[in-house]
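Run log // design_07
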């Protein structure tokens, strides 16, 4: 079973403060252990919310709000990871996604690459990748399938995005009632099972893990939280 483990933005991350060498080493050990155990699928980090945009689509109209965000609630229902030539191209694909599914809210942000955190030299023509997170609605919170017309339109869209080399990965998440939220404070952590309300703690990055149970995904999250000083991590199964 696959789980998406999403750690949330802290004040230091919002300021663009780079991770400490100790954090880098700790995360490297954690991912290395996950790779050795065969449970690691993928992971990405995002730039601060000052470099993201919130997109609200209502009745065919788009409202774009640039970050930073302080009051934006976030309950993620799914994501698309895209490789594009420009931010404008990423926005155009978000428009097509909204055309396929109807009213929806998205948060679009550029992905951190190894050279952004000093792990590798910057290439001459670096790739440009954006993560689009789309928010939960009544349907997704009830774990209901999409309407047939939505599913067909999404299949056509994702086939096109794959054909032109834009779509790297996409997935929908199970509802928050099937997830857990891990809160860290004072060197301790507490776990709250879903469903849960929107969080003003926005996603800073994620890992997708293949694990037998949610309990093991929560345990991995607590290990991550002991390395990177975060306040909140959401653990969500990917939809079947």
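design_07 sequence
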């Amino acid at each position: 079973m696959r789980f998406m483990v999403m750690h949330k933005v802290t004040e230091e991350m919002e300021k663009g403060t780079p991770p400490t060498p100790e954090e880098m080493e700790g995360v490297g050990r954690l991912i290395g252990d996950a790779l050795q155990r065969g449970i690691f699928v993928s992971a990405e980090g995002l730039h601060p919310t000052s470099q993201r945009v919130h997109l609200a689509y209502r009745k065919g109209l788009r409202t774009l709000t640039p970050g930073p965000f302080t009051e934006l609630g976030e309950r993620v229902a799914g994501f698309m990871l895209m490789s594009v030539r420009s931010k404008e191209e990423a926005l155009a694909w978000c428009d097509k996604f909204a055309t396929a599914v109807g009213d929806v809210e998205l948060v679009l942000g550029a992905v951190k690459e190894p050279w952004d955190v000093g792990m590798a030299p910057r290439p001459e023509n670096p790739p440009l990748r954006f993560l689009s997170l789309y928010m939960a609605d009544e349907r997704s919170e009830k774990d209901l399938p999409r309407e047939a017309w939505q599913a067909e339109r999404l299949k056509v869209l994702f086939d096109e995005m794959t054909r032109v080399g834009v779509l790297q990965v996409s997935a929908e998440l199970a509802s928050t009632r099937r997830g857990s939220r891990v809160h860290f404070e004072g060197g301790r952590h507490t776990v709250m099972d879903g469903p849960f309300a929107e969080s003003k703690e926005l996603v800073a990055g994620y890992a997708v893990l293949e694990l037998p149970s949610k309990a093991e995904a929560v345990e991995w999250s607590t290990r991550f939280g002991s390395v990177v000083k975060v306040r909140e991590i959401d653990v969500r199964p990917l939809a079947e």
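Helices lie at 11-14, 21-37, 87-101, 138-141, 148-163, 214-227.
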